[in-house]
Specification:
Blueprint lengths: L1 E4 L4 E7 L5 E8 L4 E7 H9 L3 H8 L20 H16 L4
Helix pairs in contact: 1-2
């Protein structure tokens, strides 16, 4: 799914599990769709367990902390898995290739 936050001109793309929790999230800002986040909940949890959460957050961001059913003021558009992957792959590679 995806939605747009007008105030900050950010597009959010989400992969959501069966219970409505965000498992992966991409954030793109402005008319140039500049990548600002490409976070995975599984990776975030592993980074937390390894004591490297600050490093992960700084580089990749975080996923939404509430399930989709609890969101207010968002009208997400449904995407296919392929549509999400088309965004996730390039954005993730771009963020991962940035110098630390």
């Amino acid at each position: 799914m995806r939605c747009h936050l007008d105030e900050e001109d950010i597009w959010f793309y989400f992969e959501v599990d069966a219970e409505g929790w965000v498992t992966r999230q991409v954030e793109l800002q402005g008319p140039e769709l500049a990548p600002i986040a490409a976070a995975s909940l599984d990776e975030w949890q592993r980074a937390q367990d390894a004591g490297r959460l600050d490093e992960y957050d700084h580089r990749f961001g975080i996923t939404a902390e509430l399930p989709v059913s609890e969101w207010e003021g968002h009208d997400p558009e449904t995407l296919t898995s392929d549509q999400f992957e088309e965004v996730w792959g390039p954005v993730r590679r771009q963020i991962a290739s940035r110098p630390r």
